[in-house]
Amino acid sequence: MSSASKTLLIWAPVLLSTCAFAQWDDSLLRPFVIDHRAATMSPADLAFLHDAPAGKGGFIRIQGGHFVKPDGKRIRFWGVHLTDWSPGSIELPAKEDTPMWARSLARYGVNMVRLHFVDKWAPTGITDGSKNDTRSFDAQQLDRLDFLVSELKKNGIYMDLNLNVGRAYKEGDGVPDAARLQWAKGLTLYDKRIIELEKEYAHNLLTHLNSYTKTEYRNEPAIAIVEILNENGIGFGHNPPSKFYADELDGIYNTWLRANLSPDQLQKIREEAGVQGDAPVPRLRGSERATAPKDRYETDVRFFMALEDGFYQDMKKYLLDLGLKQPIIGTADHGHSGQPWTMLTSLSKLDILDGHIYWNSYVGVGNVPMVNDPLHSMPVQVSRTAFAGKPYTVSETDEPFPNEYGAEAMPIMAAYAGFQDWDMVIWYTFEPKKDPNWKPFMQEAWDISHDPTRMTAFAAGALMFLQGDVKPAVQTIQRTYSKEQVLDAGLLPAGGRGQAAGAPSEVPYFTPGFPLALPLEHGIRIKSFDGAPTARYTAPNANPIVSDTKELSWYTSDAKTGLVTVDSERAQALIGFIKANKKTLKNLSADITNNFATIVLESMDGKPIARSGKMFLNTGSRSQNTDEKWNEGHTALAGGRRGGAGVAGGAPVANPNGHAPTLIEPVTGTVTLRHLQGAKAVSAVALDGSGAAIGEPLQAKKTAEGWDLS
User: Is the pLDDT of residue 237 over 90?
Assistant: First the structure.
């Protein structure tokens, strides 16, 4: 396409200007339904980003601290989970539906699916739920998984295979107190029988021959990553679920003491613990750690670190001996109200470091715009885990429903993930629907699949991140922790802000002299856990907080009208309270009536926006269901986040989640494209929820400022 004619694809549509209005005026909401089944060809199809089939040429490997293809070319991953938490959803679709879902994911820019919870009982996962044990697979479910893998691969979509997530053990497994364990968190790292079962499951799945790809999973190059555990760990917070496991852990502890302490050291620990003769030494419990003698406290910490490290190294060896060819994640740094250094010491010895982060994810502290709190934002919190020389992945993140600011999360994460030079961002979660006649609406907090705001923003984020449209930081600041700092980290106070409800921590880094603004200004990595304590850094109390590439700026104000701007050659965005800030970018400005919105402009042909012949414009403000009901404080839906009977303003609410169709608050006003080189005409095509064009192309008006779309 010549530079004389510019085509703009708008998703969701910018509508004609209206008079100014108060934010959250529900009379302005309009239906906008994401329809995956109706999608065929779309002018905004992002499948061109993928080099199909996935795994073409061989396995993804690690080079220079990042993922590369067999030819050494860098590859980033932007993806979703497949789960079935909400009614009507399914994790492993029926074979007649699977090609449709795979094609739809590819259209939105997905090039990675995290195969999560596949170890649950059928009909969710692949474990045969009809037996008295969990040691065999359900034939139909395994066939569906095989077909899903083949269809994702065909569409250029890689996979992250999780080995242990939601397996619930049964009596026939030979696991004591099986009915009390749920997912056996913590026990998976030390119970002998459960570890045997984990290895058996890994063997059976990884050596399974996929009848569609004709490849065993351990030899499948479309599987890019294998994860050992999900959000799992052990330490002072571990409370064994029964006497059997408490006694087992105490026995492992005392065996370790005898093997790792000198007779004099062990005798001193015995005296400090108040035990006589050969009686076992009890582990420290709860608040005891704060008052215990230093040597006893540090002995306990070293034990738990050795236990975790031993488990991961043993599992890694087992998988490699099995012939696994994919790089390995141990588990994720998934809690940000406490320090992670003891756990990360062992995880950093594996191939990849991984983190999980959410915003607005708890009732009572939800519906707060992230743009107003940069120092505790998702990019700042989750950046603490990245390690020098290792790929860094964020395998779970989201700003879940119900949320009137959800349009902000995906472009913000895409921009700062590019700036921090991360390797993968996966959104939790995408829920395929079983019934072709299902009426799309948002009935589950985490499901993005039919959220008009999040799904269209997802596509814009895919373009930004996968194309590398935001430059990595000029300077990367590395943090080093001494062994003593790591051992003593458990004595640090937990983060305070909303801690009980799980809101962001005040101190996600727990690092003296490390300003929280730094991840928004420079690259951030951990260098080691065995060196001199990190140097103190200073950061100006700047507003805006500007990245050292000058492409990203985060504005705040006392009026709570924050704004993030992206101003690179191929990606430009205004995210947050656009009307209050009135910022102009190189090629983009906006005069809109919405108080809160996102506007993301992306080149689709690899050229700078100034010379691009085809561009993608995503606009979003808020989305909700028809008749959705909030509580008076607008912190959650009436009656709770996930629906059910509730009260709003004293009146009973039968279904606060509302019902179909989904609605959006359209972004209304004028968007101006500036400094488009050689442009003689600019036309815009609005897209509906299936990605198809709506109506006739809109011709932009040439003005002194640029090209106006109203």
Answer: no
> φ and ψ at 486, to 5 degrees?
-65, -45
Tokens encoding 370: 């992230």
* List of residues 6+ apart from 431 with CB closer than 8 A: 82, 83, 84, 85, 86, 89, 90, 444, 447, 449
Helices (H), 606-664: none
Q: What is the pLDDT of residues 392-447, one digit of tens each?
A: 999 999 999 888 999 999 999 999 999 999 999 999 999 999 999 988 889 888 99
Residue 525: the pLDDT is: 97
Looking at residue 235, its pLDDT comes to 81
Angle at CA of residue 496, ends 490 and 499, nearest 5°: 90
pLDDT one-digit tens code per residue, 691-704: 999 989 999 999 99
* C-alpha–C-alpha distance, residues 660 and 125, integer Å: 28
Of 454, 442, 231, the closest CA to residue 356 belongs to: 231
In the structure encoding, which two tokens stand for residue 640, read together? 């709770």
Of 663, 656, 697, 702, the closest CA to residue 681 belongs to 702
- Does residue 650 contact residue 20 with C-beta atoms inside 8 Å? no
pLDDT (average), residues 210-218: 98
With beta carbons less than 8 A apart as the criterion, state whether 470 and 568 touch: yes
Helix residue ranges, H only, 292-408: 294-321, 341-347, 378-382
The answer to whether the beta carbons of residues 598 and 575 sit under 8 Å apart is yes
HSE-CB at 572 with a 13 A cutoff on CA atoms is: 22
- Which string of b and e fits 511-546 if b means at least 16 CB within 10 Å? beebbbbbbbbbbbbbbbbeeeebeeeeeeeeebbb
278 Cβ contact list (under 8 Å, min separation 6): none
pTM recorded for the entire structure: 0.95
Q: How far apart are CA 386 and CA 421, in angstroms?
A: 10
Report helix, strand or coil for 234: coil
Cis peptide before 53 (omega within 30 of 0): yes
Output the CA torsion 19→25→31→35 (10° steps): 110
DSSP characters over 118-157: TTSBTTTSSB-TTSSSS-SB-HHHHHHHHHHHHHHHHTT-
Residues 115-128: pLDDT tens digits? 999 999 999 999 99
